[in-house]
User: Fold this.
Amino acid sequence: MARGSDTLGYWIGRMAEGCRLCIAGLKVVVFVSSGCSASCFYCPLSPRRRSRGALYADEEPVATPLDIVDEISAVGARGISITGGEPLQCIDKVTEIVRFVRDAFGSYIHIHAYTCGLYTSTRAIDALSDAWIDELRFHPVDRDVWNLVSYAARETPMSVGVEVPALPIPPLLKAVVLEAWRRGAEFVNLNELEVTETNVDRLLARGLQPSEDGRVVRGSAEAALEVLRWAEDEGLDIAIRVCTAKFKDRVQHARRLRRKAMALAPPRYSVLDDGTLEIDGERLLPTLRDLAPLVRRYGRARVV
Assistant:
């Protein structure tokens, strides 16, 4: 039976471990990109994120895998998700990151990665498995990518799933679920399709309309839920999760911010539920006293 809510998303079957840790706010998101040639019309990435050589950990630009290890330690994360762009377009960088993380934390850290499959091969999949990635998620943008889903699911110890945006076309989403099931995937994630400044024109050109608040595509979540109920009625032995935009904003992002704030907040600051920091007037007085001499001497001061 389907579980969940608009805030947590909805699911049937056993949720992927990467999703379970994500819901708890325990994943560091590692963004790796050497560009991507898939040209998906719904891609929400900003021009900065699309640039070659981009490397981020939880929205912060980083320079080396060691910086990622430091971020994991600083915030007490239990895992990382490697996304892009197309991370496997720079497979050597991805395996280097994975090995650094494994050397530092061993099996304590859960690692999952995404790929559209265009730059993936059986050799690359073996390299990811050998580097000890726990979970691989495919966004099949080409029919041939399904052969790689089959290979990864049946020939490696990795947990393998399919993750796609929930276009408001239920027959298309049902076909994805059926193909994933036939290919041996353990789970399918259907993400509510978000509207951004970089994809809105392309969405409108294809007749897709924004919701009333302009944040998501109208009918996306409803189509995904229809497919989830259909899969349950059909008795398909595959887990399905509908990941809502509300979940990403109110739970995933907020819990990640709160985790980081709890670990790094300076003295005298309180951490709010959404991960922002608050300091009341009484607690602020010592800081103001410290700043007063600087203001008198230089005419200004800054808190960092």
The chain is about 45% helix and 20% strand. The chain has a mean pLDDT of 90. Residues 76 and 221 are 32 Å apart (CA to CA).
